[in-house]
Design brief:
Oligomer: single chain
Low-confidence stretches: 326-330
Strand content: 5-15%
Largest sheet: 6 strands, parallel
Number of strands: 18
Distance between the termini: 63 Å
Helix content: 40-55%
Length: 738
């Protein structure tokens, strides 16, 4: 009988997939992924492509076990009888393809803890019952059956073994192992999804970088707007970025808010992609809510006639990466010419060990990458590790990087952060004269002030109501923002609320309303209550802002949402402290709040913002004593403890789940219907798993990755907090009327 790789799905009218068809497809696709990445490798390395081909050829060797074939022929779901990975690892190890063996061992469970695996050799003693990257429970059986499995494989898969490269005398680095596993996993998942009819469109648009640069020039020239000094500065910044050398691997761009960074740095990225023949352009943003704003701009400016905007500029909002085979087709891949994603997605992928996240990594070599609002990209102790990844991609894989922010902290100049005696020199993309002129404008635009007393919820609302015009109030937690918004609305204030309690599709609607209100009714009295999701990259211009004490960088960023274009004589940003039983305290800001207090006491707000931010960053770092975290992470990566590295490089440490708020989507997932991942993430929120458990939310789909929201949801105001606050009120009262 023809050996199988996957069972059929009778309910969907799908037959099984043969072992031969799957292995040949995965072998070729893994090799092709590796070959495409190697086009951008600084030094030729045939061993990498060979490792990908070997891994693809033998990743499913253990499925040829008789017990596994019986299950594949008779059952549609359920696990195999024998761990099918072990045979491939055994064969690859015998053929001295150690890196391919590591990839095969991890193609379901992720990159392993290599020291732990190597310790099996010592524990096994003379019997050698255990070995690195092997399953000790079946090792002896696998070794006995291996000759027969290899014989079956060669009968099913024509063409013999993959090419044998020059003997590999070194082990791969961490990033090479992640890239290799990415090539294998994407090939495996892609072919499996294709067989089951779940594979999305595999034909993204072409780069056409020169044409897009011409289109961007035309778009910028047609923007119009004011003709004063601000407009002249924006023009200077655009042309400086467009003309920046593509030979420089990493640039710094501390262009102030409202200076047109979105288009100016894109001009450089397009120029670099053209000059170097790059594959992709990445825009990495700190918050999910500003992804769509940037996507909208880029689609207007860069999509050429006859093209599908979604294929050219891809929006990667959420962590839409699933372990479940049935949900895997929803994974967002980095295969469009231009990818707009979040810092969480981008940087956690660089440190990942799990296959859902690593699947897309092989697309990164040969890319131009803009890390916007770099100060807010991650906790500072993660930058030394990420800096090494950035430099490796730039030096070894032809990537180009721009670190940008209106308040850029130069962490690379701080030896306490990068390590004793280690500093880097990153040149500024904007000429000094233009920067200085922009800095003078910034200092005249905004005044930063601090409220000396601690406020209650009532006191905060009273104070906000004493101001007039468009006011922005930013709280440190989603619950605090919802409570204040609800209270101000109850008092009769015209109030909007924006936080991650709302699904992206509803945040988008509220963002449009905010922009419309600010543009068409600039003198209207109203309040936006929000979380930090409005700090960076959002084109708002309020009269006054109130920011719960958090970080110096947060105050500076909120300053970018006040009097943004200098339309008023002065804008005021207030720092305040609040303490109230109805409001929740964010646990991560104690040290940084002390630094905010220090900066106000020292009267440092008249300094250049880059200088101020660099000082604040150093002060926060000293207070937090993060050196040990840095050392631990670098040691774990060097040793190959990849699960530990993935845990330590989590930007968001909360254990969250995707919770679907749309009734029709919930029904479709429950019934096993195919859904568009873009619709899924647009109509979902992320919730801590502890909250999911506390609320007893129902799991939908396969595994514990998707849940249904079953309480009140308010799409126009509070989102899921409408239900959460009602439940909190019931808890406080001890009863409810139903």
């Amino acid at each position: 009988m023809t050996p199988l790789a996957h069972s059929g799905r009778a309910g969907r009218g799908l037959g099984p997939q043969s072992y031969s068809a799957h292995v040949l497809a995965v072998r070729e696709l893994a090799r092709a992924h590796a070959s495409a990445a190697l086009e951008y490798r600084e030094a030729p390395d045939p061993t990498f492509e060979a490792a990908a081909e070997w891994a693809g050829a033998f990743h499913d060797l253990g499925k040829l076990e008789a017990a596994n074939q019986l299950i594949l022929r008779t059952k549609e779901n359920g696990g195999l009888a024998v761990n099918h990975v072990d045979a491939g690892v055994a064969h690859l190890a015998a053929r001295r393809q150690a890196e391919a063996a590591i990839a095969v061992y991890g193609h379901h469970i992720g990159l392993c803890d290599l020291p732990g695996e190597k310790a099996k050799d010592q524990r096994g003693g003379q019997n050698r019952a255990e070995a690195a990257c092997r399953d000790p429970a079946i090792k002896l059986m696998t070794d006995a059956n291996l000759p027969d499995l290899i014989h079956q494989h060669h009968q099913a898969v024509p063409g013999g073994d993959p090419m044998v490269p020059t003997l590999l005398t070194r082990g791969f680095t961490g990033i090479e192992r992640r890239l290799l596993l990415s090539c294998l996993v994407d090939a495996d998942h892609t072919d499996t999804a294709r067989h089951y009819g779940d594979q999305p469109d595999l034909h993204p648009g072409a780069g056409r970088w020169e044409e897009r640069l011409t289109a961007l020039d035309r778009y910028v020239s047609n923007l119009g707007g004011d003709t004063g000094k601000r407009s002249a500065l924006r023009s200077e910044i655009y042309h400086a970025c467009r003309a920046a050398s593509t030979d420089q691997l990493i640039w710094a761009c501390d262009s102030p808010v409202g200076s047109g960074k979105t288009t100016a740095i894109m001009a450089y990225l397009l120029q670099a992609a053209t000059a170097l023949g790059l594959r992709h352009i990445f825009i990495v943003l700190p918050y999910t809510n500003i992804v769509q704003q940037s996507v909208d701009v880029y689609r207007k400016a860069l999509v050429l006639p006859g093209e599908s905007p979604e294929k050219i500029v891809a929006a990667h909002h959420h962590q839409a990466e699933f372990k479940s085979a049935d949900l895997r087709f929803l994974t967002a891949l980095w295969d469009a010419p231009i990818i707009v994603t979040t810092a969480v997605q981008f940087f956690e992928t660089l440190g990942a060990n799990q296959t859902p996240r690593l699947r897309k990594l092989h697309q990164l070599p040969g890319s131009a990458i803009f890390i916007d609002e770099a100060h807010a990209a991650m906790p500072i102790h993660l930058w030394p590790f990420m800096w090494e990844q950035v430099k490796t991609l730039a030096i070894g894989w032809s990537c180009r990087f721009v670190l940008g922010s209106g308040s850029l902290a130069k962490f690379w100049e701080n030896p306490r952060i990068l390590g004793a005696g280690k500093t880097e020199t990153i040149p500024p993309m904007i000429p000094d004269a233009t920067r200085n002129a922009s800095s003078i404008f910034e200092q005249s635009r905004i005044s930063y002030r601090s409220r000396p007393d601690t406020l209650t919820m009532t006191g905060l609302c009273d104070w906000v109501q004493t101001s007039r015009g468009a006011r922005l109030v930013v709280l440190n937690t989603v619950q605090s923002a919802a409570v204040i918004a609800e209270e101000l609305s109850r008092r009769g204030e015209l109030t909007l609320h924006l936080s991650t309690a709302l699904a992206p599709i509803h945040r988008r609607t509220i963002l449009r309303l905010i922009r419309s209100r600010l543009k068409t009714k600039p003198d209207l009295d109203w309040v936006l209550v929000a979380t930090s999701c409005v700090e960076a990259g959002v084109d708002f211009s309020f009269a006054t802002a109130f920011r719960e004490r958090c970080r110096v960088s947060s105050l500076v960023q909120i300053g970018g949402r006040v009097n943004r274009h200098g339309e008023r004589s002065e804008g005021i940003v207030w720092d305040f402290v609040v303490n109230d039983p109805l409001l929740t305290v964010h646990p991560d800001f104690k040290s940084s709040r002390d630094v905010v207090d220090d900066v106000f006491h020292k009267g440092m707000w008249d300094r250049d913002l880059t200088e101020l931010m660099t000082y604040a960053l150093d002060a926060e770092f000293k207070r937090q004593s993060e050196e040990q975290k840095i050392a631990d992470l670098m040691r774990e990566e060097s040793a190959g403890c990849y699960p530990s590295v993935a845990r330590l490089t989590r930007l968001i440490t909360a254990d969250t789940r995707l919770v679907v708020i749309d009734a029709e989507l919930i029904k479709a997932v429950r019934e096993g219907c195919r859904v568009d991942y873009r619709e899924l993430v647009a109509r979902s929120v992320q919730l801590w798993f502890t909250k999911v458990t506390k609320l007893s939310l129902t799991q939908i789909g396969d595994g514990e990755e998707l849940y249904a929201w079953e309480y009140e949801y308010d799409p126009k105001f509070l989102g899921i907090m409408a239900g959460v606050l009602k439940l909190s009120q019931i808890d406080r009262d001890g009863y409810a009327f139903v």
